[in-house]
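Entry 12.
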Amino acid sequence: MRSLKSIERAIVACRLCPELREYCAQVARERRRAYADEDYWGKPVPPFGDPNARVMLVGLAPGAHGSNRTGRPFTGDASGDFMYPALYRAGFCSQPRAVDRYDGLTLIDCFITSAGRCAPPKNKPTPQQLRNCFPFLLQEFDALPALRVMIGLGSIGFDAILKVLRERGFRFETPPVFAHGAECTADDGTRQITVIASYHPSRQNTNTGKLTVPMFDAIFTRAKQLLPASRSA
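Predicted 3D structure (tokens):
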């Protein structure tokens, strides 16, 4: 089993999708005017979180001027501005504001990753690009044996979780369905994991009211309820 540090290094060095590496580098060279004086990360974005986490969040892919700029998931864009305060209110992170990877924010019992690791044009990774990234998600799952709850942020993140669990021999008690707040439970005979579906905290969803603060808070409140009181349970 690979360590999380080893997985992170492999992600950053990955060149399986040269078209995405070039796109990320191009965005980093050209920059958005608001960030003209900043040094962009411009590479695949590694995961972030507690190595003993019992909760994993799986998003879509880095934002061109968010994670691709800051080098940390959901950091420096509107999605993160909506998500980290919710994690903070639920007790899963140390502060409500995420600015860059040096801001001191830490995750508590929580791990954040994504189905795609490079920022894709128009925020739409291709099926092949997602397939190229999938082994990293499998490796992260294997490196987090304490996981009990997995949250899919958007349908792509949700589907990636289902694929991981099926690949690792988990069976679902009921057929999984993506809908905000929907749950399904999977078991491999030794461990039970609950999967929770959530709308992605994208500006498209939060600005239109499709995803509200109470709706998002309910996801993390439920995740907290599902965790055993003792980590050894």
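Annotation: Residues 4-226 form a domain with the Uracil-DNA Glycosylase, subunit E fold (CATH 3.40.470.10). Residues 127-142 form the longest helix (16 residues).
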